[in-house]
């Protein structure tokens, strides 16, 4: 039987966290700068009032991470938590780490007075949706919309054929 652990991340974990985030974003065909990822984790770990980061371990090996960010929500009359990023390496999936990580985040929220916990997943990500539903998340019936004020730190990769077509079109 494996030993699973979800522990708070420290500044000494930033390089490992950046590697995990790069792996996570690559699964969705996004590229991510190591410097940007490290900077993002450093900021969140240095300012815990903005949220928390946990490292997921299985038999003392690094298996993933989960990020909670915080904001004030008028609807709930207090803080709202958002599972902003959540990644379990493929080799460690289906071993209970996801459920353990979400329970750890929820316990932290309850202990610190967070009044609601949100998560976002794509409609095409059935496995993640099932993990969230088992953990007690429900569809809010609201759309999540965005108006970027700054560029995201990741870039969507173009498929190889599309890249060639785009390159030819730009040369014309």
Q: Could you give a short description of this structure?
A:
The protein has 172 residues and is α+β, with helices and mostly antiparallel strands. It is built from 5 helices and 7 strands, in the order E-H-E-H-E-E-E-H-E-H-E-H. The chain starts with a strand and ends with a helix.
List the defining traits of the structure above:
single chain; 172 residues; alpha+beta; Aminopeptidase; five-stranded mixed β-sheet; two-stranded antiparallel ribbon; 7 strands; globular
Care to describe what's here?
The protein has one domain: Gcn5-related N-acetyltransferase (GNAT) (Aminopeptidase). α1 packs across α2. By secondary structure, the chain is an alpha+beta fold. It has a 5-stranded mixed sheet with strand order 1-3-4-5-6, sandwiched between helices. A two-stranded antiparallel sheet has the order 2-7. Helices cover 37% and strands 27% of the residues. The N and C termini lie far apart (60 Å).
Q: How would you describe the shape?
A: globular
Which strand-content bin applies to the residues? 25-35%
Q: What is the alpha-carbon Rg in Å? A: 18 Å
Structural class: alpha+beta
What topology does this entry show?
Blueprint: E1 4-8, H1 14-27, E2 30-32, H2 34-46, E3 51-58, E4 61-73, E5 78-88, H3 97-112, E6 116-119, H4 126-134, E7 154-156, H5 160-171
Parallel strand pairs: 5-6
Antiparallel strand pairs: 1-3, 2-7, 3-4, 4-5
Helix pairs in contact: 1-2
């Amino acid at each position: 039987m494996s030993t699973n652990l979800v522990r708070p991340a420290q500044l000494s974990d930033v390089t490992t966290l950046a590697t995990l985030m790069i792996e996570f974003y690559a699964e969705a065909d996004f590229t991510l700068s190591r410097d940007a990822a490290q900077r993002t984790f450093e900021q969140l770990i240095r300012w815990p009032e903005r949220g928390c980061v946990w490292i997921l371990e299985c038999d003392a090996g690094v298996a993933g991470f989960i990020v909670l960010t915080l904001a004030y929500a008028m609807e709930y009359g207090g803080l709202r938590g958002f599972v902003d990023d959540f990644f379990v390496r493929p080799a460690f999936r289906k071993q209970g780490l996801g459920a353990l990580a979400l329970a750890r985040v929820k316990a932290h929220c309850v202990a610190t007075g967070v009044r609601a916990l949100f998560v976002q997943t794509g409609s095409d990500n059935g496995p993640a949706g099932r993990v969230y539903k088992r953990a007690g998340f429900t569809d809010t019936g609201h759309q999540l919309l965005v108006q970027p004020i700054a560029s995201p730190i990741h870039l969507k990769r173009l498929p190889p054929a599309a890249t060639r077509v785009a390159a030819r079109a730009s040369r014309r």
